[in-house]
Amino acid sequence: MEVKDKLKIAAIQMKNVNDNDANISAAIEKINEAVRNGADMVVLPEMFSCPYKASNFPIYAQEDKGKNWTALSKAAAENKIYLVAGSMPELDNGKIYNTAYVFDREGNQIGKHRKMHLFNCDYKNGGQVFHESDTLTAGNSVTTFETEYGTMGLMICFDIRFPELSRLMFQRGARMIIVPAAFNMTSGPLWWDLAFRMRATDNQIFMFGCSPARNENASYVAWGHSLAVNPFGEIMKQLDEKEGTLYCDIDFSVIPDMREQSPVIKELRHDIYKVVDLTKESC
Fold it and tell me: Is 242 a known active-site residue?
């Protein structure tokens, strides 16, 4: 299959409510709108199907190929797009995971990532306290998936803070890493732009982040600011905190030239250090 270089991708920055079915319906409506505006790939936010609260995850969790999975697979097939379906709570043998699914243009699942690094924070001076590990189990697979635009990496939120994971995806050939994420009002101002720009610069690839919109009345207030970053670490497009859809035209053909101008990849010292992939398959 010939690999295409030009991709129009959309990030749906949406709020959610205390109703799974309403959230799925709202997401599908926004997916349909993004397709009408020419998107070939659409990305949803982290935990878009339920309010982001550790105690909610067991309540909203569904098994593989449940009604959410089925509705999103159908939306991808009907619109003939790639759909990175944000993340949602997944129930598997009594354990709950923060899971992102990827569907191809026919609605087939071509990727699945369980958040590897659970977010447990105790920010001082009035900051947020949040422990994902109270209800979630960590995943253990490096996730990449194949498209007509080449290899893509997939991680969820806090995963981006660990440079080894993005390097493993780069080593698998990822041209872009997609990150459904919900940084909060402490971590967002400190690290949101920085993390995406550094992972792009580290690996000289594109990074694409999709956040929920900010809801000041929620128990967990998201930072927003969905964005696209190029291999030079430059922010190409970015939303503010409000609901909206970010559209970005990605041209993967610029990667070799950027790597020639700034030869980070060329100068890696594999004779001294390396990051080893201990997994055999992406989940």
Answer: no
